[in-house]
UniProtKB/TrEMBL annotation:
Protein name: Elongation of very long chain fatty acids protein 7
Species in which this protein is naturally found: Anolis carolinensis
Keywords from the named record: Endoplasmic reticulum, Fatty acid biosynthesis, Fatty acid metabolism, Lipid biosynthesis, Lipid metabolism, Membrane, Transferase, Transmembrane, Transmembrane helix
UniProt xrefs under Pfam families: ELO
Functional summary from the UniProt entry: Catalyzes the first and rate-limiting reaction of the four reactions that constitute the long-chain fatty acids elongation cycle. This endoplasmic reticulum-bound enzymatic process allows the addition of 2 carbons to the chain of long- and very long-chain fatty acids (VLCFAs) per cycle. Condensing enzyme with higher activity toward C18 acyl-CoAs, especially C18:3(n-3) acyl-CoAs and C18:3(n-6)-CoAs. Also active toward C20:4-, C18:0-, C18:1-, C18:2- and C16:0-CoAs, and weakly toward C20:0-CoA. Little or no activity toward C22:0-, C24:0-, or C26:0-CoAs.
Residues that span the membrane, as ranges: 35-52, 64-84, 118-136, 143-162, 174-197, 209-227, 233-258
Catalyzed chemical reaction(s): a very-long-chain acyl-CoA + malonyl-CoA + H(+) = a very-long-chain 3-oxoacyl-CoA + CO2 + CoA
Classification via PANTHER family: ELONGATION OF VERY LONG CHAIN FATTY ACIDS PROTEIN 7 (PTHR11157:SF118), FATTY ACID ACYL TRANSFERASE-RELATED (PTHR11157)
Enzyme class: transferase
Known pathway: Lipid metabolism; fatty acid biosynthesis
Comment, domains: The C-terminal di-lysine motif may confer endoplasmic reticulum localization.
Amino acid sequence: MALNNLTLKAASLYDEWIKDADPRVDGYPLMSSPLPQTVIIGAYIYFVTHLGPKFMENRKPFDLRQIMVFYNFGVVALSIYMTYEFLMSGWATGYSFRCDIVDYSRSPMALRMVRACWLYYFSKFIELLDTVFFVLRKKNAQVTFLHVFHHSIMPWTWWFGVKFAPGGLGTFHGMLNCIVHIIMYTYYGICSLGPAYHKYLWWKKHMTTIQLIQFILVTIHIEQIYFMENCPYQYPIFMFIIWLYGFLFLILFLHFWYHAYTKGHRPPKYLKNGVSNGISKNKAE
């Protein structure tokens, strides 16, 4: 009886909470509740940390070079498209880069931003293949805690953003991340083409700098809300989550930079493959 009452109370709280969701995302895949994505992310974590390595234990690494060329340049194309959509639905067509609130209307521009947000959210599931490829190629050293954490937390938290606030200043870091991914996955794509193309990767040393700039910009942009007077952004809690995420990874990348470039030492094991997508020479080998 107590368990039934607890279940009913939880269901009632969920119904009360979800009633404030944006009705414009009704019908979009994975948006009915956080449960489907939680199952997918849970399966991903289990596969890349247990099932996959166990499956590959007595097998030779898969040769995925051709698949990875298609995948990496496919992500580049998708990132270019998402960047364009973010720009045209707000960031280049009226947003101030300061107190930009969510437009909940059904205007063409507002609906375009909703679609851009959902597509960015969905792209995070495509990027789970990064880790799957590591496992199938037996690059298990690259499946670090921070790598898996990053790929897991991004889609899970973005579900709430898309469900309740698809637009406004909370989407800046998504657009910026798309721009960074254009550069990163171009690098990975060229790597995938083979050693003959590696001479074009002279800019590898700048990859960590690009990541640092990304997190600095995200942190500075989102901090503005705490210094603005009367910014009526609808979900301030999302701003804190974005700030916390950006600040955390800024510190981790600075730590990586310090060990790898300033001291000239090998970075700590949990950072040696980078944090976000793993800036590693072995990603496409």
